[in-house]
Amino acid sequence: MPRRLNTIIVVPHSKAKFFKISFSTRALVIGACVAVVALLLSVIAISYTGSAVSRRAEVAQLQTENRELAEVNRQLETTIAEVQDRLDDFEERTSRLALAAGMDSQVGSSGGAEDRPLTGDHVGSGGPYDRLPGSPLTLKLQGDWISSRLDLVEERLTNQDEKMAATPTIAPVLGLLTDGYGRRADPFTGRRSFHRGLDISARRGTPVHAPADGVVVFAGRNGGLGKTLRISHGFGYTTVYGHLDTIEVEAGTEVHRGDEIGLLGNTGRSTGPHLHYEVELDGRAVNPLYYILDAY
């Protein structure tokens, strides 16, 4: 039986010779398969080429980002080094401030295990504080540690400043010191008695000044002391001013060191114009001369 052929007749135009192409069904199937395979290969090649181009673009972008990150890391390392240097400087200054405040040197410097920041191998290791590696976390811990030390130093300095302001360190009046603190012969009876303060003689009407900051807790007459003032300064300090001619403040008035509080006089049990001045610490009379820094 003769093999069947498939024929395609091609006529270019009306006057041209036509030609025909004959092929078997098997050839048609093979050709079609080859065309499909070629199409698939073309699609795969195009996809691969596009993917390769895309990957090359991604690689180029990643390389650019890596270079940028490397620069950022370099700048970060520089910044961390600068911050570490500043923290070291703050730590040294904190140590000096702690010493100036009369605190233990360990308060202002890197102390023992209970004081230092804990991280990594340093947890529970004991012994002296070691310099931690300069990472953001350890820098934060060191900064927090220094901040807490500075808070302690500031609190101590504030407390000392307030205590100094409350300490009666100046003479309430300048004049002739006629009698001191301690046992003496009473000027009226001649008997031995204990004198709780100082007697400072001066012209009547001489201004009397507060020797420290405080609050007036008594202003009025007080038996043999005549016109009397009592000022509470805090921190256990109280001062008394007797024989005043004039009282210029009243109970509840806040006074500051150097404020005028009255005028020297001769009221009460007195032999002449003078100021009787007492200093009490925690309710016990002490020698005022131990505190006066500007006279006698």
CATH topology heading of the largest domain: Glucose Permease (Domain IIA)
Shape: rod-shaped
**Helices and strands: which structural class?**
alpha+beta
What is the count of distinct domains?
3
CATH superfamily of the largest domain: Glucose Permease (Domain IIA)
Low-confidence stretches: 107-132
Instruction: Give helix and strand order, one letter per element, not per position.
Output: EEHHHEEEEEEEEEEEE
Number of helices: 3
Q: End-to-end span in angstroms?
A: 150 Å
The radius of gyration is 49 Å
CATH class of the largest domain equals: Mainly Beta
Arithmetic mean pLDDT: 81
- Largest sheet composition: 10 strands, antiparallel
Helix content: 25-40%
Strand proportion, as a percent range, falls in 25-35%
Please provide the count of β strands: 14
**CATH architectural label of the largest domain:** Distorted Sandwich
Keywords:
296 residues, alpha+beta, Glucose Permease (Domain IIA), two-stranded antiparallel ribbon, 3 helices, rod-shaped
